[in-house]
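Repro:
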Amino acid sequence: MKLNKNPKGSVLIMTLLITALLVAILVEFAYGVFVKTNVLYNFRDGQNLSLIAQSGIELANGYIKDYLASNQYTAYASYVIPVAKITDNSNESLVVSISDENSKFNLNTIINENGSTNDKALSTFKRLLTALKLDENISLYVTNWINSTAGSSSAVLTSATTHNYLYCVDELLSIPQISPDIYKKLAPYVTVNGDGLININTASEEVLMALGENISQTTAKKIIEYREKTSPFKTTTSIQSVSAMADKSIGIMGKITVKSTTFSVTSVAALRGIQREIHSVTQYSGTPEQVKYWKEF
């Protein structure tokens, strides 16, 4: 008995198999081209955004230098520079913000150059922690971290020192006793750059309270109210114009200033879901200015 063979059916099956294989190959090829093209475009856009973000830093640098040259005091703790559309046909966005580092407490002032503890700065830090409702022992953890060779800022450790000044505020997260929650509460009020002087025109209520034992929350509020409603302080001694500070200013002289010299700048450039952000800290107390910190991500 002979089996019936259908050559047309076999050819049809082979044709369908080959067609399916070719379609699969074509789809895979098209997907690969799509992915690689997107990667290429994203790389191109990322490079362009990086340059735009750098331009934002340069824009802020020029703005700060002009501001310092034309003003005897610094009156704003933070400021967002209005940036016009980059080009008529572009979709990129650029946001540039400036923050006054002298409005914060400098953690590195806790340790002197010779490695000894600066008791006045340590006391200031403890009062800041109290104002923030944080454990005072955090001040000891930070002190021990800076004043040891175990710190992570080895780039600033020289043969002449036995301590490590903090390179950035984020380094606090390297201290075992400082949790992310503690860091989140503390970070807005501290810095690791600058001359250590606190600007009474820009300091927050908590930082003002940290300046002296006799500066209560009520007194700090009155200082802020005076500088906002009456006039920014043009000299350090003019803080005596605040009634609550008439007999309390002597103890804080040498700790305060009215003109800041260190600023941080954040420049964010974005396009179609891609973003480049640069964070820099620059000190303007000398010529030329010194970039203390730079991070791009």
